[in-house]
Amino acid sequence: MQILELTSSYFPAVIALANQIHGDNYLDNASLTLMQQQGVKQGINASFIALDDMDNVVGYRLSFAAGQWQADNWCTEQLWPVPLAQMAYFKSVGVCPSQRGKGIASQLLKTSVAALQQQGAKAGLAHIWRESPGNAAERYFSYAGARLIKIHPDRWRHLSETVGYICPRCGELCRCSAAEMALLFSPNE
């Protein structure tokens, strides 16, 4: 397996993988372009892909640099370990179902954290999909050292209602909840 910075040449494969995992209309070229740009700061890219031995994209991680994303209604800033200006955002991660359990998501996270630290971030925030099979997403992020900030019911419902997001669990109207979680970066990570 090889971890590389996300560039536009990999966009079609990342879009296909993300929509397969997270549901139709989760990503498109315009949204992925913006998200990738939000991860680049001081010439350092914090979004990455994983390639298998045949150069197929088998995983991705989209991360936003501190100061390059907006807190929203599902952010509980007063409970965060660092201020918004020092908080990066882990937007999305996905690994091919056939490749899960091989440490790909963990390696993508570790690589992204290193880049975010180089950019000056002190911590990263994520809204973790609690209805992932077996709540694996929350267990994975907890294992990485993140702590729970707050549970947000119906976190992605507005995307179903406004941009046509189709949840792989709920269908046309997403009722899934999110675990708002923060990962404090250690100085030697």
Which oligomeric form is depicted?
Answer: single chain
Spatial arrangement of strands, main beta sheet: 1-4-5-6-7-9-8
Largest sheet: 7 strands, mixed
Q: What's the total helix number?
A: 5
**Topology pattern, helix = H, strand = E:** EHHEEEEEHEHEHE
Structure class: alpha+beta
Radius of gyration: 15 Å
The total beta strand count reads 9
Low-confidence stretches: none
Stated plainly, the CATH topology is called Aminopeptidase
Strand content: 25-35%
Quickly name the level 1 CATH class: Alpha Beta
Shape: globular
Q: Fraction of residues in helices?
A: 25-40%
CATH architecture: 3-Layer(aba) Sandwich
Ends: how far apart? 21 Å
Q: Mean pLDDT score, rounded?
A: 91
As for the number of domains, it is 1
CATH superfamily (homologous) name: Gcn5-related N-acetyltransferase (GNAT)
Pfam families: Acetyltransf_1
Domain N-acetyltransferase: 1-170
Protein name: GNAT family N-acetyltransferase
InterPro entries: Acyl_CoA_acyltransferase, GNAT_dom
What's the SSE blueprint?
Blueprint (H helix, E strand, L loop, with lengths): L1 E4 L5 H12 L6 H10 L1 E2 L2 E2 L2 E4 L5 E8 L22 E9 L8 H16 L3 E7 L6 H8 L3 E6 L4 H7 L14 E7 L5
Parallel strand pairs: 6-7
Antiparallel strand pairs: 1-4, 2-3, 4-5, 5-6, 7-9, 8-9
